[in-house]
Specification:
2 domains; alpha+beta; Alpha-Beta Plaits; 224 residues; 9-stranded mixed sheet
């Protein structure tokens, strides 16, 4: 049985690396006595794939992992069992069974939503959003493998939205990930600073979710 789970990593665990998060999930699977499947070979490991990497320093509202089980299990019970043993800040939201032919998370996910909590006037933020959306190009030095090369972020920014929160104004970016254009959250930070946002005005950054973008529509990895 192959499943995909949606989980939350709260601000308390924002400094876990992807490897540490995977180890946390593996320990939880063992403590909860989940009937997971193991790989073959001399060094068998749990058939667990954590999907897209959540950058260190960010917390995530809707993260995902794929897991292969050694048999059938009620998925509501699986979520409850894992939540009993996971540390504070980690929570399994829901899980669904996958078809054998479903592409992996790394192959399917091609969009992410990043939220920036800004302590600025809402009118000033609205002006920045308009400037970004109206721009023909947004050149930022790449922070990826091609360091020192300017990257045009405009082609990979699909949507921008704002909403009021208790901590400030949340500016959301829906951006491309993977191929053909991968936009990192720190490149978006550079873009905001280029647009006049002071560093001290950015009080929090998080990933709202990962998505599958098809013909302009955005879908949860649990939907597609």
């Amino acid at each position: 049985m192959r499943i995909r789970a949606e989980y939350r990593i709260g601000p308390e665990l924002r400094f876990l690396s992807n490897l540490e998060t995977m180890h946390m999930m593996e320990r939880a699977l063992r403590r909860a006595r989940i009937p997971f499947a193991l790989s073959e070979g001399f060094n068998p490991h749990i058939r667990l794939s954590m999907g897209t990497v959540l950058p260190v320093g960010l917390w995530g509202e809707k993260e995902y992992f794929d897991l292969e089980l050694d048999g059938k299990m009620d998925l509501e019970e699986l979520c409850q069992d894992l939540n009993r043993v996971l540390p504070e800040g980690a929570h399994i939201i829901q899980a669904r069974e996958l078809a054998v032919t479903t592409p992996s998370l790394m192959k399917a996910v091609n969009c992410a939503a990043y939220g920036f909590i800004l302590q600025m006037m809402q009118q000033d933020i609205a002006t920045i959003c308009q400037n970004i959306l109206k721009a023909d190009e947004l050149l930022i030095p790449s922070r990826g493998k091609k360091k020192g090369v300017d990257k045009d972020l405009r082609k990979g920014i699909y949507k921008i939205d704002t909403q009021l929160t208790e901590a400030g104004v949340c500016l959301m970016f829906w951006v491309g990930t993977g191929e053909p254009l991968n936009i990192r959250y720190d490149e978006l930070t550079d873009l905001l600073q280029q647009q006049g946002v002071p560093t001290q005005a950015i009080v929090d950054v998080f990933r709202e979710g990962n998505y599958i973008r098809i013909n302009g529509g955005l879908y949860s990895p649990l939907e597609r």
